[in-house]
């Protein structure tokens, strides 16, 4: 059965999907032999033959249809509750990442701001902040994040984090990058700095830093840091399934 499920998700390169298939994070639910649902964090990925029951069981705010039939079924099943929007799959440029350029972004923080790894204390602080929970929220707890997660925050002085970049999901050889900035600290270059620092860390550990952009702003930041647009695709936002009562961050 595992091989059949893997075949249903053939061509899905997202670390989020791969984490579900590997059983390291999230979960996969099969419906018969021809349909499956992979769920992780705010995402549900629908693969194989469209089945209404799996659309009804999807319990996350972002639904990603694997083929056109799923899109029609989502609209038919959820009606006005589901709003289509465009996300952007990216890939690194053929030349690879320019590490010198990435390093330069980590050196251009405004005075008084500092890059720090997400350690024990920062994990709990981030989980208490509405804007920051996605940075660590897909992990089972602080020990799980310390073992398998990776991330950095920007602090103002020695105070609380005001921006961060981390592994939203982790699978063998790759992570899915999540970047969030506290609303009142945006447009200061903090996202560029912590995103660049995380990518450099991934390169040092030979981990691929996946980036699936939530909007054009996220895509622009990805391109700034060395990614290229692979393809736009349609996903669905289901408002009544939003977690934490908050809006999604940059990724």
Helix/strand-derived class?
alpha+beta
- Unreliably modeled segments: none
**What percentage of the residues does DSSP assign to strands (E)?**
25-35%
Query: Under the CATH scheme, which class of the largest domain?
Result: Alpha Beta
Describe the main β-sheet briefly: 7 strands, mixed
Overall pLDDT metric: 94
Write the CATH homologous superfamily of the largest domain. Gcn5-related N-acetyltransferase (GNAT)
Helix content: 25-40%
Radius of gyration: 18 Å
Q: What do we call the CATH topology of the largest domain? A: Aminopeptidase
Give me the count of strands: 12
Tell me the count of domains: 2
**Could you say which overall geometry the principal axes of the C-alpha atoms support?**
globular
Topology as H/E string? HHEEEHEHEHEHHEEEHEEHE
Instruction: Walk across the major sheet and give the strand order.
Output: 1-2-3-4-12-5-11
Q: What is the number of helical segments per DSSP (H or I, 4+ residues)?
A: 9
Give the termini separation.
32 Å
